Amino acid sequence: MLDFCGTPTLETDRLILRRMRQDDTQIVFDRWLSDERISDHRISPAHKNVLETKVRVEKIVSGYDSKKFCYWGIELKDGHDLIGEIDLYDFDHATGNCEVSYSIGYNWWNKGYGTETLKAVVEFAFIHMNLHKLSASHNTDNPASGRIMEKVGMKQEGIIRHMIRNAKGQYKDCAVYGMLREEYVGRKGAGI
Ligand SMILES: CC(C)(COP(=O)(O)OP(=O)(O)OC[C@H]1O[C@@H](n2cnc3c(N)ncnc32)[C@H](O)[C@@H]1OP(=O)(O)O)[C@@H](O)C(=O)NCCC(=O)NCCS
Predict the structure, then answer these.
(1) Strand locations in 12-170 (E)
(2) Ligand 1 pocket, 147 CB below 6 A?
(3) For residue 49, is pLDDT > 90?
(4) CA of 23 to the centre of ligand 1 (A)
(5) In angstroms, rounded to a whole number, what is the distance separating the alpha carbons of residues 40 and 146?
(6) Contact, 34 vs 46, CB < 8 A?
(7) Using CA atoms, how far apart are residues 141 and 178, in angstroms rounded to an integer?
(8) What CATH number did the domain enclosing 72 receive?
(9) What is the number of domains present in the chain?
(10) What is the DSSP letter of 48?
């Protein structure tokens, strides 16, 4: 049974994962939602104007009224720059499973922030939410996303051909990853 506890602040060595705020809107637009280098790897198209982002952030902020809403902004401890977002979604009460998705602003890629973020949320989900299984998928032409899943202990379960059609009408094959509670516990016990 899932134990929902909303979106509490999480801390890692270099990052604070915190609730998003309405005054983040411009930064969210500038740093990831308007950037095609990021949206090309996701289903929703890049935002064309900041009003679209305002509506999206409003929806996120109102989501915090529910304990079943888990959506973090990723902030650097050093300088307090907001550099990305991560969320847990598609909770299935019958199985205790859910999905994770994330984006990091292009200027901060390949500095280990994606891995550090995902590791913290994986830990939160298994320890505090009693998750049974965490899943995610990435386009096969986006190997960096698969790499961070592997680095936190998720396993590739297969490739689904033409799993998504992006905003440009391109079909994409996706690699599907998952991590079971017992695998998380095993890694933790082994100090990984
Ligand atoms: C996926 C994403 C979150 C990764 O964030 P990040 O902060 O760059 O991740 P990290 O720096 O922790 O790790 C990136 C890893 O991918 C590897 N990598 C980067 N580009 C790669 C490529 N073209 N091929 C293979 N590996 C690649 C890096 O070398 C690094 O692995 P390493 O630590 O073993 O060297 C970021 O690229 C992103 O936001 N992409 C766009 C949105 C997206 O893809 N979201 C996920 C949808 S499923």
Answers:
(1) 15-18, 70-76, 82-92, 97-104, 133-139, 155-165
(2) yes
(3) yes
(4) 27
(5) 15
(6) yes
(7) 19
(8) 3.40.630.30
(9) 1
(10) S
Please write the tens of the pLDDT for every residue from 93-138: 999 999 999 999 999 999 999 999 999 999 999 999 999 999 999 9
Within a domain: 143? yes
Task: For ligand 1, atom 9, name the residue with the nearest CA.
Answer: 114
Substitution candidate for ligand 1 out of 145, 156, 164, 166 with most atoms within 8 A of CB: 145
69-79 tens-digit pLDDT = 999 999 999 99
Name, in order, each residue with C-beta under 8 angstroms of 53's C-beta and a sequence gap of 6 or more: 25, 26, 28, 29, 33, 34, 47
Task: Measure the CA–CA gap between 154 and 169, rounded to whole angstroms.
Answer: 29
Output DSSP code: residue 24.
G
Q: Is 124 a member of any domain?
A: yes
Distance 111 CA to ligand 1 centre (A): 9
Return the pLDDT at 187: 95
Whether 173 is in a domain gets the answer: yes
Distance CA 97, CA 189 (A): 22
Segments forming the whole domain that contains residue 67: 10-189
Q: What percent of the chain has pLDDT over 90?
A: 93
Strand order of the β-sheet with 171-180 is: 10-11, 15-18, 70-76, 82-92, 97-104, 133-139, 171-180, 155-165
Domain membership flag for residue 1 = no
For the purposes of burial, counting CB atoms within 10 Å of the CB of 42, is it exposed (0-12), middle (13-18) or buried (19 or more)?
Answer: buried
